[in-house]
Each structure stands twice: as C-alpha cells, then as structure tokens.
Amino acid sequence: MPDAxxxxxTVLVEFAASLQRHQACAPQRVTPGSLRSVLEAxxxxxxxxxxxxxxxxxxxxxxxxxxxxxxMVHDRQRLDSPLAGGDRVLxxxxxxxx
Length: 98
What we know:
The protein is α+β, with helices and mostly antiparallel strands. The protein has four helices and five strands, in the order αβαβααβββ.
C-alpha cells in the first residue's frame, strides 16, 4: 500500500519524548477503531510504556494527556470514541505545578 493510502486508512499514534524516555516507541500506524483499541494496538509493541499510560484499571493515568486531532480527550475511562483512518493521536505526559 502506498504511503498516502496507508496514512488515509490508518490512525497515527505518537508518543511524546517525555514518555519515550521510559521506553522508545516510534510512531505507530494502527487499524481504526475505538480510542481504546487504537491505544492498545499502538502499545502492543511497547508493553513497558503501557504501564506509564494506563493504570491497573486500564484507564489513562492522571499524569497522561491524550489528544485526538488536536483535541484533548477528557474521558479517561471508557475511551470509546470512534477513530477513523487519517486521525492522529498524541499521547504525552501532562505537567502540573505552578
């Protein structure tokens, strides 16, 4: 499949450098589906990184932010938003403090 067709048919998942310092994980192109299935597929190749993204209930940890097409995801539990080919997901470590 040519690169343009692959990009249109898959979801791109990227992990920010702040998370990759725990385990390297190149950008992943995965099959569209729910946000949960997309994250699980992208983390399948980096299981140690999954522990930084998900807690023991498989919810997104409070110190992690997930963005879909530039919009922050607020539901950390269900993660059932449907994603389509061409969507982009960015997972990063949320910073707090003042």
